[in-house]
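User: Sequence in, structure out. Go.
Assistant: Echoing your sequence, followed by the structure tokens.
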Amino acid sequence: MRRLEAGMTLVVASHNQGKIAEFRALLAPYGLEVVSAGELALPEPEETETSFAGNARLKAVAAAKASGLPALSDDSGVEVAALDGAPGIYSARWAGPSKDFAMAMKTVADAVHARGAWKAPGPAANFTAVLCLAFPDGEADCFEGMVHGILVWPPRGEKGFGYDPMFLPHGQTLTFGEMEAGAKHALSHRARAFEAFVASCLGGPKGGARDGA
């Protein structure tokens, strides 16, 4: 896999402002010029694959080819054991066209309750993220990260984005929605995928995820 060097411009292949903010924070120590797909007015490709890795690769390759620059994408979601892994790769779709994640979280909670599966301490769930770095010639490589925990209801906290307020990582007392950004970045699924990306493409850690939960 080709490496990225300080001073290079990297496209974050996302229009999701929450994800873009996380990527900017994670990439800050590496001296890269970061620009988002939204800032470049790149179209959002339809996510037609059946896995996180497939969709991450699709988005990264599309952004790299359209921009002529290396592009880093993410495909991620929450997988609930009681729902057979749903919403999974469809996590964003459960929020509808308006990206209403309050509605999406309630849909998840209602679905778990409907199966009679909301039992103490809470339904088992995990967040999964796959990052993909792609170059304009189509070369691409993927990196996966996962964090396990339980769901809580009602949601707690207004930080983070997506399903963060209803996800409590194992060993923690705060949901992702209650954590400050630095605390979340230390143990999140995206941070764990980012560790693997850094090791392969940026030459080692400079303040990404740390050992822990």
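User: And one key feature?
Assistant: The domain at 9-201 is CATH 3.90.950.10 (Maf protein).
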